[in-house]
Automatic annotation (TrEMBL):
The lineage of its organism: Bacteria, Pseudomonadati, Bacteroidota, Chitinophagia, Chitinophagales. It catalyses: Hydrolysis of (1->2)-alpha-D-(4-O-methyl)glucuronosyl links in the main chain of hardwood xylans. The active site is at E303, D377, E405. It holds the Pfam family Glyco_hydro_67C. Residues 25-142 form the Alpha glucuronidase N-terminal domain. Keywords: Carbohydrate metabolism, Glycosidase, Hydrolase, Polysaccharide degradation, Signal, Xylan degradation. The keyword Signal applies. This is Xylan alpha-1,2-glucuronidase. Residues 1-19 form the signal peptide. SUPFAM superfamilies: (Trans)glycosidases, beta-N-acetylhexosaminidase-like domain. The keyword Lipid biosynthesis does not apply. Residues 146-465 form the Glycosyl hydrolase family 67 catalytic domain. It comes from Lacibacter sediminis.
Amino acid sequence: MKRLNVLLLLLLCCSIVRAENGYDLWLRYVPIKNKSLLLEYKKQIVSPVVLGTSATAAIARKELSVALLGLTGSSYLINSNINTSSVFIAGTVKSSAVLSALVTKEELNRIGNEGFIIKAKPGKTFITGNTDLAVLYGIFHYLRLLQTNQKVINLNVISIPKLKLRMLNHWDNLNRTVERGYAGFSIWDWHRLPTFIDQRYIDYARANASIGINAVALTNVNANSIILTPAYLEKVKKLADVFRPYGIKVFLTARFSSPIELGRLKTADPLDAIVQQWWTAKANEIYSLIPDFGGFLVKANSEGQPGPQDYKRTHADGANMLANAVAPHKGIVIWRAFVYAAENPVDRHMQANDDFVPLDGKFNSNVMVQVKNGAIDFMPREPFHPLFGAMPKTPLMMEFQVTQEYLGQATNWVFLAPLFKEVLDSDTYAKGKGSTVAKVIDGSLDDHTLTGMTGVANIGNDINWTGHPMAQANWYALGRLAWDYNITSDTIADEWLRMTFSNDAAFVKSTKQIMLRTREIMVDYMNPIGLHHIMATGHHYGPGPWVSNLNRPEWNPVYYHKADSVGIGFNRTASGSNAIGQYHPEARKQWENISTCNEKYLLWFHHASWNHKMKSGRSVWNELVYRYYTGADSVKWMKQEWLKQQSKIDAQRFNDVSMLLDTQLEEAKWWRNACLLYFQTFSKQPIPSNYEQPDKTLDYYKSLRFPFAPGN
Ligand code: BDP
């Protein structure tokens, strides 16, 4: 007996001090500490029932049982039939009269296939929707309420996704390297598929379903046609089979020249009948394996990728050819607008609009054009892409980058929800005030039914999925905002912290404060007042504003900052490239005039003289100094605040974040010193003596090389 007790005690201790490696993401389901809440929850959840016979319903039952065991410490049998003691009932409206009586016809129409309804009063809880997937979403929502310790006695929730496609784009290569990936290798183990199903695929699908993500493109936009060969399609089918019950559709990237590479055709000309037949046959082959295949994602005529322009055809010609091939199967084509060409001397900022605006109205109805949030490239801060609002006849899909290619990669803690929201809330003025980017992509502004948002995934085979433990929040934020872009960054951070770490109020308050400031802090020490694309080239790790020797002009940082003896910044006004002219006149107003320009974008749109006076009273040079120093100092503040959290969370993740903050501080100082020393060669002005002076020379910073930086 004594030995048994000791054993039990040992077991208990192990579970308390269990190191957390982050694999469980925000689905940890740890015991609820608040006793009165726990009692409340237990009263609400008696003899829980999840109706339905589908694989999705089975998943919902399993999730509920795992979660309730973890959260309450009691094991629950989740019934699939209602009995007299059931007070917690989940299922589609069709599955039970009890549930259908709860909702009106109007509500059912409104919630569509994925929206859900939760109604609860003391001793009764109902979760329902039109499909088992909607019910699964409802259950995840309910579990989030429990995980974040919210009241569940009186609930009247109707939640409907604002966007139809809520997607992740994996830039994963078939050899398992991940372009711009900072979390290890690809989670797709192509070599061992289709026979070996890694548990990770299931855990991945579950995590996505918990935040409403319902589509994934498995492969790099810089595509390899081998993914379209029969052997690989068998592997893709296996992944699609795993993902299906979680409501996730699979897309593939289509290399435009595949008919030549795989079909041995002489051309990939989209207007060539044989090419069209090749794609039709390929689509038929895919759909015979994967009946609900989502469709193709295409990067064409950009950064050396093949495309229709190789045959003097337009992007619409290329997209429509593929769209015709998938249309009989209800598939869609997502065509990327991230295009620019080295041969084109026009400001890179303008090239996508130049190519795409004339094509508005020329795309088939099953084509979406996927537009990056800004016209250059996922910078720490960039104005919204001028295509938003400029193609009313075409459904535009938002592309964000969740992986932090330009935002500190593997080592910097940056919470991206504020960046995403800044873009979504931007006003295009396309149809008057209030024509936000969000309203462009949700279809409401121009009456589109195809709608979506994607994020370039930050997921790899690192044990914690995202490399930096805090980067999990960005995957989470993408899903939550694609479901409802009105959720605030504060709420997202709050939910995520509570579920991922702890409900301790002091912990949540301080750590949330850090999270909400991280993005501005990074902008300050990397790209203040509108600077952009001054990262080192190739791997984009660290600063490289001096780089000027690459063949393509727009691959050189000097192209973007244009520092000279007079000043710094890219004049994109009417007296310069006039990229600003691609925005609606009302939107332009905030940037057009150098003396009234929103200073966050000053050097984005203006070449400002070194002595130009900022609103702070400082000169541009002194403002740059101030920003770079404030940014780097703020990382010290992040570290100080974080150290206070030691007793609140598990040691492993606490230490991981602490060590990474040390690296982040070093990198912030590196950015600060390297950029200021370099820009100083033009401004010829000192770093005021009250600032700690750089301890290394500009030559030292220029000499640094990182041949094995990840993701390249
Ligand atoms: C750039 C990345 C490059 C991608 C490209 C794209 O550096 O690796 O292939 O975007 O989005 O930012 O196609």
